[in-house]
Amino acid sequence: MEPLIADLLLTVASAYHLLGALYYRAASAPPKEKVFEFPSLAVHVPAYKEDPQMLRNSVEKIIERLRPEQVIVITDPESYEEVRKALPPEVEVVTGAEKGKARALNEALRLTRTAYIMVFDADSFPEEGFSLVKSPYAASLWKGYSTGTRWGEALANVTTLASVALIYGRSKLGFPVIPPGSGVLIEKELLEKLGGWSEGVLTEDVDLALKALEAGVKADVVPSFVLVEAPKDYASLKRQQSRWAYGAVQAIKRHVRALTKHPETFFYLTHHASTWLPLLALITSPAGLSPLALILYYLAVSTEAFYSFKAAKGWRIRVSLADAARTSAAGLSMSIAILTAQIKALLGLKEVWKVTPKGRKRSVGKGIGSEVVLLLTPLIALWNPASLPLALQYFVASLYVTLRVLSEERRRH
């Protein structure tokens, strides 16, 4: 039985990578943009304890490039005065962000006087020449940016490429799009019909998309980019990805009925599992692991990599092999943290919502814990040498991330 378990785990991991290859292949050619001038657009910006100067930069660009009728920034009481002074007088600043992002967005919804709404995070803003499509519900593409380290630049580039695949590529294949929170466009009437943003969930954007799917509403794609700041360091990235992994499983539990009609969407929402499935296969490999399963896995990974670079070329996104290696190492290193987050969500254990530090409020953070355990993975291969490739991929990833974080800490002190 054990050999079958290891092979099955690795085969499922291969399926995730092959799906990724399909997304990238479908996204290889950029779309033709369609412009639609909204007669009545409000922008909502939740900003819990965010850097006021970064917030001002984002809001000014939003106003300049979208010219919305209404801009509502929802902050916390502690930050209110500083935020109010930093923003243009026409921006409506209210409190409520201290009660959670969904509660903040629902407060802004209550104050909205327009027919359409767009939501932006405090660090995000539309690119120059941003175009909109007429749609009751739509997702913008994401373009990562970084003002910090080479690590941050690598994450920014891969963020852009992943957005092209997971939003545009999936839409081209006819799969339901899950609009990410920043840059989402929605008709006010539809949002109210869906009951507003769900409070008490970790990823309110995913939950909204599944509520819309249950109501028979599929999201379109805005053929322009929203710029979003990439996490500067590994600790921030792990916190972000763990939150997303937890929130996705939480949303799945709340909307099982919708996903029975869209099985691909279930795989999309659980794609973080591709980081830890090979690890579990490695752990069970001493009892036996088929070389065929290993070959299939690495063929799937290579196929996804091939089409991702092809998509990057089509969209003129600068992603180097070094960028891909850095982000791959990060994903494998946080595999235990991701698995823990998904198990907690499955069991209904509470996860505290934390803002990913941005702007001047970013911090390096230690970020190392379970990663060190992965340095022991080569020992598993002593019982089954065939699993050595899996053992080495986790060992090298963990070693790279551990040394990098320790180096950041030395520079910090």
Task: Estimate the helix proportion, in percent.
Answer: 40-55%
Q: Could you give the distance between the termini?
A: 51 Å
The overall strand count is 8
Low-confidence runs of at least 5 consecutive residues = none
- Please tell me the overall pLDDT: 91
CATH H-tier superfamily of the largest domain: Spore Coat Polysaccharide Biosynthesis Protein SpsA, Chain A
Number of domains: 2
| General shape | globular
Number of helices: 15
Subcellular location: Membrane
Organism: Ignicoccus hospitalis (strain KIN4/I / DSM 18386 / JCM 14125)
Keywords: Glycosyltransferase, Membrane, Transferase, Transmembrane, Transmembrane helix
Main location: membrane
If you had to describe this structure to a student in words, what would you say it looks like?
With 413 residues, the chain is an alpha/beta fold. The protein folds into two domains: 2-26 and 266-412, no CATH class; 41-230, Spore Coat Polysaccharide Biosynthesis Protein SpsA, Chain A. It has 15 helices and eight strands. The chain has helices spanning 2-26, 52-66, 80-86, 101-111, 150-172, 188-193, 204-214, 234-254, 256-260, 263-269, 277-284, 291-315, 321-333, 335-347, 388-412; strands at 41-46, 70-75, 92-95, 116-119, 125-126, 137-145, 184-187, 220-229. It has an eight-stranded mixed beta sheet, sandwiched between helices. Helix 13 (321-333) packs across helix 15 (388-412). The chain is globular.
